[in-house]
Fold:
Amino acid sequence: MKIVVLGGAGKMGSIAVQDLTLNDAVDEVVIADLDVSAAEAVAGTIGSDKASVQKADLRDHHALVALLAGADACVNATVYYTNLAVMEACLEAKTHYTDLGGLFHTTRKQLLLTDRFAEAGISAVLGMGSAPGIPNIQARYAADRLDTIEYIRIYDGILPPPPGQKKFTYAVPTIIDEMTLKPMVYRNGTFIECEPLTEFEDYTFAEPLGVLPMHLSLHSEVATLPVSFADKGVQECFFKINYWGMSPELVEKVSVLTEFGLASDEAIDVKGSQIAPRDVLFAVMDAYVPPSTAFLAPSDRQPPDWAKEIVTEVKGTKDGATVIYRVGTLTVKGALPTGVAPARGAAWQAAGRVAAGVHPPELAFDPAAFLKELEARDIYTQITVTQPL
Structure:
């Protein structure tokens, strides 16, 4: 089994590479990245004979197809702007595809490719990281056990950093978009726009997280879950997170920059050159993103401590009685699920365990089996069921 990880030198892609090299079913893992030196550093840190390095420039469609040809599956761990282009390359190469998310709007566009993937006899699973990804599977676990569903509420809790820390937890472009684009929420049978950083509530997570302030954020789970379980009458679905795992002070500072237009993609004239402000913003902020190898430890092959619990609450009825499922997936190595989940999903796809076509995670995987498999990487799920006596 050969799997290509695009963006394999990135923070989450490198974790996917690491997990795939530890998977007995996988024979070869290609770390494909534009930054070859970073990819070689990841390969050296992991130290597996299964890993190889290839340069990947996603702007070169023909070279990308050639890279993917012969691979059983592709994990697209690059920024979500590339999702549609990589899917086109996978269609041509006839390679199974998965990614880490499409921030709602891109995901909805990707779903339109399902007939073409089905005709090609290959599968695509959209939004298969820690979130989206694990919440979708958590929701499926509860939905399978309910006759009706009133709401699906997702809470992504990350242990806050020390005060004053200036670090971004994942891809800067994605975080900026989540901070500035309007969150989509499903309420009373329709999708509505809300404002970023609104509808705060305190939510209690497992230790060591405790009570954290949660707010709305644009995310892909909301794009698919109400549709997948429409027959059960879903009335509400939202996604909330606590400052994307950063300090409120850092988020406030970045918000000020975006208010002054530095997140705009409209080019402006700067001394005779046309430059998009967001490109400058991303270039400056890249210095505050930890290197990929910081998430890999050759001694125990696990990322450093960073506690995280993803919780999906589903309220509905079973045999006429009200039931609430709380499905919480916890790890004290918090970056781990975002890389491990797509790695495991891609292995399932390569093994023919996912039907041809384009699917959200909740319709692609058996939830109990998938969540159980994550325990091999110290990612544990606990389920609480609340119902009347």
Summary: The chain has two domains: 2-130+335-375, 134-333+380-386. The mean pLDDT is 93. The domain at 2-130+335-375 is CATH 3.40.50.720 (Rossmann fold).
